[in-house]
């Protein structure tokens, strides 16, 4: 059940970010919408770990554009995300051989 909630949040956040980019919405407006999605999904409080995973996985790697990085920056500035959690998600992992 938890993975379904996480997948739903990730999909909604990604769709909202794409729509905001097409409408040329400011990152702050998108951050408010993303925060609403997190509350509705029951993914937890703020800072939201599920949203951090969704943004880093779905936005930063799949859709690597400057506007999406601005959305990530706004989410961090709005305290929707934990900076250390986002940093850990962006840090490459060393594979054990």
UniProtKB/TrEMBL annotation:
GO terms for biological process: regulation of phenylpropanoid metabolic process. GO terms for cellular component: mediator complex. It comes from the Eukaryota. PANTHER family: OS07G0681500 PROTEIN. This is Mediator of RNA polymerase II transcription subunit 33A.
């Amino acid at each position: 059940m938890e993975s379904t909630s996480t997948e739903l949040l990730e999909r909604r956040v990604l769709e909202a970010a794409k729509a905001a980019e097409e409408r040329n919405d400011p990152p702050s407006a998108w951050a408010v919408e993303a925060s609403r999605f997190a509350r509705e999904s029951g993914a937890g409080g703020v800072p939201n770990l599920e949203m951090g995973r969704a943004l880093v996985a779905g936005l930063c790697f799949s859709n690597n554009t400057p506007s999406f990085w601005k959305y990530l920056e706004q989410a961090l500035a709005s305290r929707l995300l934990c900076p250390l959690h986002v940093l850990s998600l962006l840090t490459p992992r060393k594979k054990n051989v």
